[in-house]
Amino acid sequence: MIKIEKLVVGLFKTNCYFVYKEGVGVIIDPGGDCDLINKKIEELKDVKFLYVINTHGHGDHTFCNKFLKEKMNLKILIHEEDKLFLSENSINKLYHPGFEPVYPDILLEDGDIIDVKTFKFSVFHTPGHTPGSILLLTDGVIFSGDTIFKGTIGRTDFEYGDERKMKESISKILNNLWGNYVVYPGHGEKTTLDEERKNLNYFLKML
Ligand SMILES: [Zn+2]
Ligand SMILES: [Zn+2]
User: Fold this and answer.
1) Which of 174, 179, 160 is nearest to 204 (CA)?
2) What pLDDT is stored for residue 176 in this prediction?
3) From the CA of 42, how far away is ligand 1's center (Å)?
4) What's the CA gap between 30 and 63, in Å, rounded?
5) Which residue, among 5, 16, 21, has the nearest Cα to 139 in the 3D structure?
6) Which of 22, 58, 72, 84 has the largest CB neighbor count within 10 A?
7) Cα within 13 Å of Cα(113), Cβ side
8) Residue 177, C-beta contacts closer than 8 angstroms, at least 6 positions apart
9) Ligand 1: centre distance to CA 107 (Å)
10) What spacing in Å lies between the alpha carbon of 22 and ligand 1's midpoint?
11) Per-residue pLDDT tens digits for 126-146
12) Which residues touch 134 (CB under 8 Å, ≥6 apart)?
């Protein structure tokens, strides 16, 4: 079984997840409070973290990328369509004071498998909240970023958001993900996919 630990970081109370199994792991969405993230890594000293995976490019999910890449030597993984958020002139610099650009090491696309040695993630592209938003699937679990929350879905009214694509992504989720996954969102409490199907169907009609 994979182990999942959560830290709530930054002004937007983003869920940063430490996911690991048998001494190897990844950090999902290190969006702020880099010192707390650092402390957690020290606490988990028996775990070798290989990758940072961003569910999307917003600064509240990527703020500590640079710190983790440069200080901890972790590779940064993000969907190719969200790499613009990490660049020199990205909007993150505007909305997240202190945000520092960093080049991703591996660009992801739909269907990619991320091999963490003791377990794997598959990448499920769900544009809408941002062009390169993804779900990360592993072992009966979904890390849903800002696409699915408990009882609601992610906003599409930010720059680069797209309501029509969000609708397509929700259809894709409902039509392709049949298991009752435990869903770990980018903000707030965890939920399950079965619990959310009703809401997702509702949003599909409303959007
Ligand atoms: Zn976001
Ligand atoms: Zn967010």
Assistant:
1) 174
2) 97
3) 27
4) 6
5) 21
6) 58
7) 6
8) 124, 137, 142, 193
9) 18
10) 31
11) 999 999 999 999 999 999 999
12) 55, 56, 79, 108, 110, 123, 124, 125, 126, 145
DSSP string covering 37-75, please? HHHHHHHTTT-EEEEEE-SS--HHHHTTHHHHHHHH-PE
String of b and e for 151-177 (b: at least 16 CB within 10 Å)? eebbebeeebbeeebbbbbbebbeeeb
Ligand with the closest atom to the CA of 158: 1
Amino acid at 47: V
84 contacts 93 by C-beta, under 8 angstroms: no
Per-residue pLDDT tens over the stretch 154-184? 999 999 999 999 999 999 999 999 999 999 9
Give me the residues near ligand 1 (ion), CB cutoff below 5 Å: 58, 146
Tokens 């940072």, residue located: 52
Could you tell me how far CA 129 lies from the centroid of its own chain?
A: 12
Question: Tokens 């797209």 appear where?
Answer: 162
The number of the ligand nearest the C-alpha atom of 157 reads 1
**C-alpha distances in angstroms, 36 versus 5, 21, 48, 65, 142?**
13, 21, 17, 14, 24
